[in-house]
Structures
1.
Amino acid sequence: MSENFFKVIRSGINTTFQDLGRNNLNHIGIPISGVMDKRNYIIANKILNNVPSHPIIEFAYQGPRLVYHGDPLNISVSGDVKFKVFKNKNEIEGKCYETIILKDHDEIDLISTNKSVYGYLAIGADLKIDYQWKSCSINTKANIGSNNGKKLKDNQTIEVLKIKELSRRKLNHINSKIENIRVIKGTNFHYFSKESQSKFFKNEYSVTKLTDRMGMRLEGERLDNIVNNNIKSEGLVKGVIQIPADGNPIIMLADHGTIGGYPKIATVISADFDKLSQLTPGSKIKFKEVNLKDAETIFKLYEMETNNIISKIL
Amino acid sequence: MIKNISNLGDAAVYCDFGDEVNKEINSNVINYFQNLKDCNFEGITNLTPSYNKLIVSFDLSITNFENTKKIIENLEIKKNHSISKKKIQIPVCCEDEYALDLKKLERKLNKSTDEILETFFSKEYFCYMTGFIAGMPFLGDIDKNLHAKRLETPRVKVPKGSIGLTEQFCNIYTFESPGGWNIIGNTPLNVFDSLNQDNPNLINPGDTVSFIQINKEKYKNYNE
């Protein structure tokens, strides 16, 4: 056991190690995985001057409560997260998007995410965790990745290896509010009646509780398939919106199945993945159509905007 | 060869090899997949072959649809002989607690359980592709009399080891996962091993699979 480590007092809901995920394994059924909200992942690591692929602790709704033992280190929290830091007997209200120094016996309690799903805890140190296919990202369905491919558990430890030099940095940042989700028409768009095609873009859908790292199930007015409720199973990518026979859309997220047999009505553009992932059950979605050229431009702008945000870290 | 190339969203190329499912089209897909894989093009992040489609995903920060499409169109296709050709036996228990949809299937197909199982176990199946979840083999073709559609609403949790049928195909759920296939039984055999990083799949495209029916007692003692 190394001298510096975190002990998990309460693991929280769906708390995992993540990074940018693993590529080139779809053909054997392994999805990319990786962080659900890439922008918040990048920011939290950048505040600590971590490399862009540094492992991070991702949590959903309720995060972990951790006690730290060892030499001082920096952490940062990103997302829309309510949390507290306990130093001796003092309880300090946590602030996202700035460095926090944890000393021996300090505790951090990531209480909840506000009106969003995912939050991030970045650590300014190397962690003793395993890599599988070059990524630490935990896929709990296939038990792949660090921590034996399982969620963090109560009472387990997270061993800290080399600690980075301490720094003080912060960023004034507020998460963007939810807008429309932009999509490109899918390869089976014509499977749906003209009326359903226009309904798809006019109606609101609500995010249901059947939503996790694999996919997001929506509920709304039923869409009529006039060709076939099934297609021959074929590859899927993140953002694909499938319509099964019951007419309710399912959107593929980071741990999605690599193959699926329901018609693809549309695909969410890459620039909107982060905000899509953060939608809580009950949120309303409206789909807006864009073409490929626009989607590419919007993505470039989104990347520039992320770079612009992290350049403002002081 | 590829009949049509289009975009799937803004970060993937959708290569369509046709509508039918047969070994010839499928080996075309696998050949393209192997050749693209061997070239290791920068920016290509995933290749997902299936019965008659190949999806090529790319990193939109590095490349785009037009460039990736050109790579695919200009690819020189060499014959590949490295496709797997093993024969594998899979034990399956079809008693009530494992055969979640067998009763429903009796009605859908208008056949008795005995008829369904006898037909199913009498054939060998070819592995067209693996995926959906890690290591899941897509096998075919099952007898015409057993063709059924997917469940209307997919199950949120299909138990690990379940054997599912839909249309002319059958599969094995290597993990508990959501899924919409008609479940007729369950295997105690581990079909995917994530600790074997070089070759985690028991069944690979090109392999032949036969299913052997076992009773509940044998199932329960299988891993002891």
2.
Amino acid sequence: MIEAVGLTKRYGAKTAVHNLSFQVRPGTVTGFLGPNGSGKSTTMRMILGLDAPTSGRATIGGRPFRQLPNAPRQVGALLDAKAVHGGRSARQHLLCLAQLSGIPARRVDEVLGVVGLQDVAKRRSKGFSLGMGQRLGIAAALLGDPQVLLFDEPVNGLDPEGILWVRNLMKQLAAEGRTVFVSSHLMSEMALTAEHLIVIGRGQLLADMSVKDFISANSADFARVRTPDGEPEQREKLTSTLGEAGGQVVAEKDGALRVTGLPLPRISDLAHEADVRLWELSPHQASLEEAYMQLTQGAVDYRSTIDQRAGLQEAPAGYGMPGGAPQGYAGQGYPPGMPGQGQPNPYAPQDPYAQQAPPAAAPGQGYPPPAQGQPYGAPHPYGQQPQAPAQTAPAPQPAPIEDAR
Amino acid sequence: MIELEGLTKYYGDTLAVDHLTFTVRPGMVTGFLGPNGAGKSTTMRMMLDLDHPTEGTVRIDGKHYRQLNDPLTYIGALLDAKAVHGGRSAVNHLLCLAQSNGIPRERVGEVLDTVGLTSVADKRSKGFSLGMSQRLGIAAALLGDPKILLFDEPVNGLDPEGIHWIRNLMKNLAAQGRTVFVSSHLMSEMALTAEHLVVIGQGRLMADMSMAEFIQQNSRSYVRMRSPEPERLLDVLHVEGIEAVAVGNGSLEIDGVPADELGGLAARHQLVLHELSPQRASLEEAFMRLTAESVEYHAHDGEPVAAYAGTQEPAPSGWGADWQKKGS
Amino acid sequence: MAEVPRVLRSEWTKIKSVRSTMWTLGTAVLVTIALGMLICTLVRVDFGSKSINQQITFDPTNVSFTGMTLGQLAMIVFGVLVVANEYSSGMIRTSLAAVPQRATFLFCKLLVATALVLVVGLVTSFAAFFAGQAVLGEHRAYLSDPGVLRAVIGGGLYMTLIALFSMAVASMLRSAMLSLGVLMPFFFLISSILGNVSATRKLGRYLPDQAGQKIMQVIAPVNDPVPYGPWGGLAIMMGWTAVALAGGFLVLKKRDA
């Protein structure tokens, strides 16, 4: 069990972590989320006794990390996969660590096998890819067979097979009753791995609840409804019926309807009463990403606000493309109306985000992209128009899967 | 448009890329997938003429990369975010690239704004976080307003907000008719971004098809139905000769019959349905199934990859049981 | 073809936007002038105790360039960093994607860096000369003396060629550590050992630095018959540089970035 009580860290005048209190319980994978600069790494470093808190405390099993007897056998951590002496072989690196805490050498070969590095164990880690470095870091975390594990961005650099492996590994470790605390920026990955979430923003606790509650609390579940393709009047009829009954209906790109505010059986009944046939009626849970975006909207750091700008509107007058490149493109089979033609972008209306963009700036003189409604897609009003379907949501039953088109 | 024809690359005796032939088309995001060591990076480097193919050719809109006038205005690439001189400021890094391709100085400020780095434009990139470097790399790719964009692992180091942003950026670029080619290991991210997929394994082409097709070909898809009158529903299906499997909580799973047909059937029989949802496997499942044999440095121990990961770990009995007691 | 003026501008931006340029070139200028002045002071104080022979063959011009033996090391570092930093940072891939014509890329880069070094080298050479002569006082030489102007301009050319040679070696070896590891001992140890051991002296004369330094001599030392003149020596140094450049270009052309 990891516990933070009133944990605070100031670097000079800047408060990185402010009065943070939470518990990470054994037996589940707890995800640790927050925008860049929200204090995640600082918090993890304080838990591991690398940084000293300005006030408050962080304990593991009731004691501060530095007072733990033989800490490596109780706590394993992966903070920075690159924190390895590059000239040493993977095996030697682990052996050093093992000897420091009296772990038998046999265990080194075991963990090398577990992470799949047995064949490169003798190679110097300098030549390792990021993914291999990550595996080595995980091996080091597992070395003491600890009850408490901390992972910072564990899937960084891993390939899909490695990602799947890490996910299963963490779940397995938790199932054995260990405390597993994982920070990550990959919401879809977290949704598949973690059961519980701790979310911070600007150094303060924003949420401490189960993934399921978190998603329900921060976004709306919805139903996807499709009427027969060739009969638009059916679709209109259903839209108005559902609207009258108090549901919010939004048309999706592929002709389906996204309905919020009405339970599935009610939609079914209403369709039945209106004599509309349905080709699809499926429950969707919003994605963890949507819920996260909704929650952290105000807490992202300085870069994000800039990102929200509409990008490169103010094209400098007279920026003509040199070398005749754009003309060349237009003539080479691009759909008409592509950049540089000064026509409205035929694709823009299909993009749900583009509709919310501020009105396109005055068409740039001769510089193509700014003239398009939404050139580089900077605006992204989170949560207003949930787009990603529930593919990644950890629904109690297998979540309905749908590819994003 | 990027066309590869018989592209092959040997490093010494090692075959990294093996006669790759495919075309990346404009107007959509094409995902480029493959396990580590499959040859993705080599292929992308050959597209930019950084590595010389042993055999075969890459054509950018019909031309060899070297024949392009001001290549940055044709094709922008983010290969390695850290491939920047750390002592140079963000703005100077972009400026020297812009000058080499005759792109006006104003454009540098624009792309910095687009990626949100304006406030650190004059800082040396040495102090940048991975996420910031990534944004700088994206700015460099956008600099020449190119019609073709290559991104290698673009979400690396970005936070959720940044991931969301780059995803929409890529979709918008494609919607404007540009060619967008993205490699990534994050299947869930790819599923949300890409429309078309090119999958390679051990240097060979394994799939070149739409996302939907790929998932369909490499995994099971079915329809889930729920009704307040499950018996009648079963009867109706049975009469039609459709096989359904009950999976508890009143749900039925039906293989091989499209959802619209089942919906029509229910309507004809005045059956109330509470759910009628087509289910598809995730891209990850499909990808795992396809590439199970070609994963590079796990395959040769002969064990099914996913299986060993979950089961062997951790702490098999037999080691350290003696100190385990002391330790706790 | 990428247009050469554009690439030149781009390379100029690259050079002036990193601090190492200022540091290495500044060091080269300061060390060359300051050390030259120091040696000139010592020589002047010591002049009376020299033998007649030494006094007759005293070469005030050459003495004021003594600081270059150390100053050239900073030039070598500059030359190596200009090229090798592209590789160590990975910038080379970004650069070559922007300018895929590798010959244009390499020669524009070298041209810009060489032009800068030429200006700095000439300024240094003239400054070192005047400062040195001012210190030498009554033993001084004048720019209008025969051969002196040639030696002073030659000093600038020598520094330029040393930097260019280093750039060429760095483009062959593609690593700053490796290039410095080869160049530093070469110019500091091997060259002077070969040049001072009588058995190898004849060979040592044809090394780039020893041949090149000939141009800075106004009065030839006695008992040291050298088979080439000042310009001949510079030509030998240019030959070395040309070979290294060809090697550097071939490596860039053939190898994967």
